[in-house]
Structure formats: structure tokens, C-alpha cells
Amino acid sequence: MVTVLNTLLHATNFRNPFLRTLVPSISAAFGIQALAAVPSIIGQTERFYDLSGSLTYISCTALSLYLPALRARSLAASNGAPLPAFPSVIAALRGNAAPAGAMALNWRQVVLSAAVSIWATRLGSFLFSRITAENGTDSRFDNIRNSPPKFLGAFGAQALWVSTCLLPVLAINSIPQTAFAAMPLLGLTDILGIMLYVGGITFEATADRQKSKWMEEKKAKKHEEDFLTRDLWSKSRHPNYFGESTLWTGIATTSAGVLASKAGLMGMGLSTGLGGSAAAVAMAAVSPAFVTFLLFKVSGIPLSEKKYDERYGDRKDYQEWKKNTPMFFPKLW
User: Fold this and answer.
1) CA 289, 295, 299 angle in degrees (round to 5)?
2) Cα angle vertex 184, ends 197, 170, to 5°?
3) Whole-model pTM?
4) From the CB of residue 307, how many other CB atoms can be counted at a distance below 10 Å?
5) pLDDT value for 98
6) Residues 127 and 50 sit within 8 Å (Cβ to Cβ)
7) Is 95 helix (H, G, I), strand (E, B) or coil?
8) How far apart are CA 129 and CA 273, in angstroms?
9) I need a surface site. Which of 25, 65, 124, 297 has the fewest CB within 10 A?
10) At what angle do helices 148-165 and 274-297 cross, to 10 degrees?
11) pLDDT in tens, 136-192
């Protein structure tokens, strides 16, 4: 394993700081998903599909955060020198870069990496407990699990999803400490982005918890409702998806404030002109844009709306709820 890691680090040691982080991180995403696909295809089971996605998010985020330290330790090991210590997360949050020098972390890198990891852990554990309660099956895979090429394609799509959504975090983690030293300690985009993330993940988690409770009460025959119209689900037909889009917008907002700055562009090895700024903003924006596209056009809202329309489309109470409840953006009254 150490040999494989050292080979990967050597092969991806590009001069451009951004590529030096991007390529190994995305390679890891596809590698992890390929490893997860093998037993799933053999066992024809999707039980661990979502969980493997969450683990890929966490692994690639951690790898991108500690790549400079891993490279320095690999070089020291090959030269027979003492291994340098890993940079301190606590020191980064305190704004103290001295202990690790050039390998030091900035608080934004730590906070955004933690934000992704918290979201991935929460969502992965939630989806795994849900699929376990449903005997390890997911209707999305009814026409996929028995076809190895299609099933492998699903894991490849998940690796692409991880890589695209993580792009702003990978970009910010590629910036060296020397570039962050030229930036303000706290900016407007930092505050706004963190607020959006906290609001979004709280909204998503609350909506998921309310639906889980509703389903448990239904199984216990505490109510006879066929679809949830209470709490946040009375404000939006898909409050969990709204929360997810919002939290990724928050991550992108904080990232964009750093990436589009002159110090951020220079730290990534990009042009400090208009073209470089536009590319930096695009790298941040692609994450929430891709998430929202998937939710609106692929696996989120369309599948859910179709399922419920087929089941309850002829019922007046369902029609009233659908008419009076926004599909995505929650009503505030």
C-alpha cells in the first residue's frame, strides 16, 4: 500500500499546484469506486453503494488536505531523513502556521474539509440505515444490479459525482499556506458561505429526520397517512433536496472568495487576469450547479414526483398538497 501511494505521489507531482492536488484526488475517487464495485457486482447488491460514495468523499477530501505532508514525508523517507510531522488542525483553526511551516493548513481548508466530511458521514449513515431497513434493496437499481456493465457504470457515475462536487474543496486545498498569508483572516464570503452551509445541512437533516419519524409512526400504525404533508414537508415537497443544494452553495461561496482572489489564483498556479478569475469562480460554481442539476433532472425530484403521481395522482388531497406546496424553494408563510 505504501509503495502504491508513493508511486501515485511521484506520478502526480506536477509543477502546477492545482493539478498536483486534483489528479491524485480524482484518481482516488475512481479507484475507490472501482474497488467497491467488484463485490457489489459479484453479489448483485446495492446495499453498500451509497455508503461507498460517502467513504469516497471523506477519503478524497482527507487526501487532498494532507497531500503536501504526504509528499514531504515520502521524500524524506526516500532520502533516509526524519519524517516531518503532519500539520496540526488545531493550529490551523487558531491561525498558527508556524509549527508546520509551508505544509501548514489554513482554517478555511480545515473547515470546508470538515463540512464535507460531516455531510458525507450524516448522509451515508442515514442512507445505509434506510436501505438496511428495506432489506438491502433500492428501486433505482431494479434494472441495473443484474447487468455488470450497467452496475459498473453506476459506480463510475458516483465517482464522477464525487469528483465534480468536491472540485471547489480540492481547489482550495491545493493552495499553499504562503498564499493564504496574503489574505484577510475572515471575509464576507467566508461568513456567508458558512451560514448557507449550516442552514442547508440543518434543513436537510431535519427533513430527513421528520420523514424517518413519520415512516416509523406509519409502521407502528400511529397514523394512516400515505404521504407526508407536515413540518418542513408542508413548506416544500422536497425540503431535503433544497437543503442539499443550499449547503453545497455555501461551500462554493466560501471557496469562491478564496479562489478568485489574486493570492488564491497565484496559489493555484493560474493567471491573475479576468480569465483566471472566471475559471476560479466556475470551479466553485460547478459543484452546487451539478448537484442541483442532478436533483432536478436525474435521480432526485423527477423519480420522487413520478412515483407519488402514479400512486396518488387521482386523489384530491394529494392534488391540493401538490398545488399549495412549492416543489423546491420552501414557502415562508
Assistant:
1) 130
2) 50
3) 0.91
4) 11
5) 53
6) yes
7) coil
8) 48
9) 297
10) 140
11) 888 888 889 999 999 999 999 999 999 999 999 999 999 998 899 889 889 999 999
